[in-house]
Amino acid sequence: MSKVKTGSYTSEAVRGFDHRTAMEEAARCLLCHDAPCSEGCPAGTDPGKFIRSIRFRNPKGAAETIRENNVLGGVCARVCPYDRLCEEACSRTGIDRPIEIGKLQRYAVEQEKAFRMKVLKAPRGRKNQGAVACVGAGPASLALAAELAKAGYRVTIFEKEKKAGGVLTYGITPARLPQYVVDQDIAAVKGLGVEFEFGTEIGKKITAQDLIEQKGYDAVFIGAGLWQGRSAGVPGEDLKGVLTAVDFLKEARTKGGYAAMKDKTVVVVGGGDVAMDCATTAKLSGAAKVAIWYRRSVEEAPASMDEIRYAHDLGITITTEFAPKAFTGKGKKVEYAEFTGRDKKSSATAACDFVVLAIGQTAEDMSKITGASLSGKGCIAVRKGGKTNLPGIFAAGDIANGGKTVVEAVAEGKEAAASIITYLKKKAVKPAKKAVK
Amino acid sequence: MAIKKDLSIDYLGVKCENPFFLSSSPVGGNYDMVAKAYEAGWAGVFFKTVGIFVADECSPRFDNTNKEGLPWLGFKNMEQISDKPTELNFEFMYRLKRDYPEKILVSTIMGSSDAEWAALAKMSEQAGADLIEGNFSCPQMTSHAMGSDVGSNPKLVKQYTKAVVKATKIPFIAKMTPNITSMEVPARAAIEGGAAGVSAINTVKSITNIDLDNMTAMPVVNGKSSISGYSGAAIRPIALRFVAQLFQDPTVKDVEISGIGGIETWRDALEFLLLGCRNLQVTTAIMQYGYRIVEDMANGLAHWMDERGYDRLDDFIGIALPNIIPAEELDRSFKVLPAFDTKKCIGCGRCYVSCYDGAHQAIDWDAKKRRPVLNDECVGCHLCLNVCPVKDCITPGEIKWKKRAKKVSPVVQVNYD
Questions:
Q1: Is A124 within a domain?
Q2: Measured between CB atoms, does B346 come within 8 Å of chain A?
C-alpha cells in the first residue's frame, strides 16, 4: 500500500472540524488575558474572542467576530500562513503545540453558512456619501469595498474576468481554497450592496482618471494584482509545454484541472506557495511524476511548511539548490529541463513533458490604467493608506506591495478604505452624481 | 513481568480476589455479560436488580453531560430493575455460581411488600448467592412502592430489611439513595433491621439537559422525559462525601460500606478504600469503556501499593478518614502564598483574570513581560494554582502567619496532577 495521498483536483487538502472536534480544540485554548494571537493578525481578526465564543457554545458569535473584522474571513481561514502569524503567537506553544486557529476560523465561517447568517448589513439611508470605483475584484478590492460599503459609500468593482476573487478564483488551487469558500466571502461583499461589473477591463477603453472625470466616481482604487508570470531568463522558455504559474493555475482553475498533464512528467520551478500549488495541481490533475526544483534551500523557501508537507504527502519531490539553466527539445516542444547547482559544481537534467515556472509574478502594464507613479518593478508606488501621487487614486494589495499574502492584501485594503473615507470627507463630496448608475 | 500484589479482601465474611465489583445495573444483567466480566478480572457482581415486578422500559433511556467537548462527565439512566422474568434471572445467577464458584455473586433484589422481599431473598439463597443487596434507591421506578421512595423512608427500609433477614442467613446489604439530606438516618434504620452492610451511593435524581427542539429533558421519549438517576465521574465527589459521613456516624461506622459513585480509575477506587470501603462497585465507566477497565484498576492500584510499600489492602483502608474534620476544627492560623515559576509560565494570564474577577485582586499583570506579579492582597486561596494550565508553574510557596499564631510548620499539598 502506497503511503502517498491521492485525490482529485478539487479534493480538499485538510479536513475541517465538526461541532465536537471544534469544541475539543477550543477547549485546548487557554483563553489568554490580552490574547497574543489577537495581536498577530494583520487583518485585525480577534482569535482570542472568536475561540472563546466557540468554547462557550456560541459559534454564531464566533462567525460574527470573524466576518465583522475581515470580510474575507473564510478565505483567510484557508490560506493564511498561521504558523507565522496568530499561531506563532499562541501561548499554548509553551505547553505543547499551538491551537489550530485557522481550522477553528474555518469552522466558525462554516457555521455562518450552515445557519444562513447574514452578518454584514449596509447601513440604511447613507447610500449617497460618495462613489468609489475599484479596479480588479481581488482580495484588496473586496476588503476595501466591504469597508466602504459598511460606512455608507457606493462601490463598484470593475473586473476583466467573468468572476470575482482575482487570485482567489483564478490562482490558488481548490485543494487549499475551494471555490465555495471564495463564493461565500464574495456573497458577503455583495450583500453589502457592492456592485460588480464583469468583463470590463479598465485600461483598455477607459482609465482610472476617466472613471473620476467622466463616470462621476469620487475616488478610484486599484487592486489589479500581479498577473504577469516572471520569466527565468533562460533559453527555451518559448518552447511548447513551458508555462507560467499564472497561466497554468488560471487554466486549471477555470477548467477544473489540467487534463493535458495526465500521465505526463512535470517539472515545477520555484519554492513559494504558488510553486507548491502548481505542483499539487499537476499531481491532482493526473500527472505521473511531478518534481519541484528550487534554487535555494528548504529553510529559505518562502512556502509555508504546511504546503511543503502537503506536496510531499502527494508524492511530489523537491530538489533544492538547483536553478534552471535551459529548457531544451528537438522540436518545438520541451523535452528536458537543465539545471545548475548553487555550488557551481553540480548539474542536472530532467526529462519532462511540461515545465511550470513559479518564480514570481510581476505587474502588467499599469500605465495603461493610471498615470500614477510606478515603482521600479512596475508596481504602483503608494504611501501609507494606499495613496498614490494622484489625488483620488489609491492602490493596495499585490499591485502596490509587490506580492504578499492574502491577509496582507486584506489589511492594506482596509487601510486604503480608511484613507479614502478621510479623503472624501475632506473633499466634502456631495451626493454621487447621476452618471453613476 | 507485570506487577503482582495481593488485592484480596474479606468483605462481609466473603473472600474476594479484589474489591472490584459490577454494581447492580445494565452491566450485569445476564449470564454472558457477567461471565465476560468475571473473566476480565472483576471479583464479583451485584447482579442487575431482580424483582417480582418486571420492568417495562422506555426508549431511548440514556443521556450524558459534557463540558468543553469532553463527554460522559455525568450519565443519566432511565432504566429500572431487570426487565427479564424473575425465574430467568435466578437461573442466570445459579449458572454463574456453578460455573464460576470462586467469583462472588451478589443478588440484588427489590420488592414492594414484606412477602416479596422475603420471597426474593429465598430465591437468592436457592440460586447460590454469596450476599444479598436490597435496592432501596433506584430513582426511576414506575412504582412508588419501590426504589428511592422506599430508601428515603427509614421505616420502610427497616421493615423490608427485617423481612429479608428473617427469610435468610445470607448477609444483607442495604443500598442507599443520595436523594436525601442525611443518609445516616436510613442507614441506621437498615442496621436496626439487621443489615450487615450498606452500599452508597445509588444515582442522583437529575435533569441532564433540556432538548431545545422538543422543549423537554433528555433523553426524549415521544416528546417527553422524566427526572432520573445521574451517575459517573460528576457524582464521585458527592459519593465520597456520603461515604465519609456514613463512616463518621457512630452507628453506621461499624458495618461494611460498599463504595459506589463515578469510579473509573485505580485512583478513584483508592479514594473510596482510603475512606474505609472494603468493596467497590462500578457501572458508568463500564458502560462507556467496557469491562476491560478493571485491568488498569487492579494494576494501577498494585503499582501504588508498591510505591508506598503496602502489601495488603487492609494496610491502608480507612487511613484518610480521620483527617476529614469539621470546618470549625481546621487550622486557620496561616496562609500559603502561591509561588510563581516565571520560567515555566507561558504568559496566558489566566491567574491574573481569575484572581481579579474571582478572588482578591492580588495579582498584577506585567503586560510587557506577560507575567503575573503577586501583591500584598493575597489571602492564599490558591485560585491561581487551580486555573494555571501549566504543570508545577504555580505551587504553594511562602507561609504567612496570622497575628499571634503559633508558628508550626503546616502540612501542605505537594502533588498536583
A1: no
A2: yes
